[in-house]
C-alpha cells in the first residue's frame, strides 16, 4: 500500500476500526518478554502503526525505535507514548524502501 493510502487510513478511520491495529501485543511477544527469553535491549518495531507494541516494549525497559510510512500513524504513536509516559523514537520511513533515516543497529526486531 502506498504511503498516501496508509496515511489516509490513519487520518480517516478510528483506530479501533483499523483491522491491524491492536493495543494488545501478540501472545508470542508477551511470552518472550515476560519469560525473560528476550531481555530489554535496543529494539526496532518495523511497521509500528499507532505504536502499541513499541510502547509495550518501552514500558518494559526496552530502548525502542518505531518505523512506519504514515506520518499520521507516527503522530498518533508519539501521542500514545506520551500518554503512557514512555520514551520511544518514532521515524517516518518506508520499511520496504529506503531506510536512510535509520542509522543504528538493533538487538531485537
Structure description:
The chain starts with a helix and ends in a 17-residue tail after the last strand. With 109 residues, the protein is of the alpha/beta class. Strands 1-2-3 form a three-stranded parallel β-sheet, covered by helices on one side. It is globular and about 40 Å long. It contains four helices and three strands, in the order ααβαβαβ. The protein has a domain at 1-10 and 40-98: Rossmann fold (3-Layer(aba) Sandwich). 36% of the residues lie in helices and 15% in strands.
Rounded average pLDDT: 93
Biggest sheet strand line-up: 1-2-3
In CATH terms, the superfamily of one domain is Vaccinia Virus protein VP39
Write the CATH fold name of one domain.
Answer: Rossmann fold
Termini, distance in Å?
22 Å
Blueprint (SSEs and pairs):
Elements: H1 3-12, H2 27-34, E1 42-46, H3 52-58, E2 63-68, H4 71-84, E3 88-92
Parallel strand pairs: 1-2, 2-3
Descriptors:
single chain; 109 residues; alpha/beta; Rossmann fold; 3-stranded parallel β-sheet; 4 helices; 3 strands; 15% strand
Summarize the structure in short.
It contains four helices and three strands; from the N terminus they run H-H-E-H-E-H-E. The protein has 109 residues and is of the alpha/beta class. It has a domain at 1-10 and 40-98: Vaccinia Virus protein VP39 (Rossmann fold), CATH 3.40.50.150.
Amino acid at each position: 500500500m502506498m504511503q498516501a493510502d496508509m496515511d489516509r487510513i490513519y487520518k480517516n478511520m478510528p483506530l479501533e476500526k483499523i483491522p491491524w491495529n491492536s493495543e494488545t501485543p501478540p501472545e508470542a511477544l508477551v511470552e518472550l518478554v515476560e519469560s525473560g527469553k528476550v531481555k530489554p535491549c535496543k529494539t526496532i518495531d518495523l511497521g509500528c502503526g499507532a505504536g502499541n507494541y513499541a510502547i509495550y516494549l518501552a514500558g518494559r525497559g526496552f530502548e525502542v525505535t518505531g518505523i512506519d510510512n504514515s506520518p499520521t500513524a507516527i503522530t498518533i504513536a508519539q501521542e500514545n507514548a506520551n500518554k503512557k509516559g514512555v520514551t520511544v523514537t518514532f521515524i517516518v520511513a518506508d520499511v520496504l524502501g529506503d531506510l536512510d533515516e535509520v542509522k543504528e543497529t538493533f538487538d531485537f526486531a
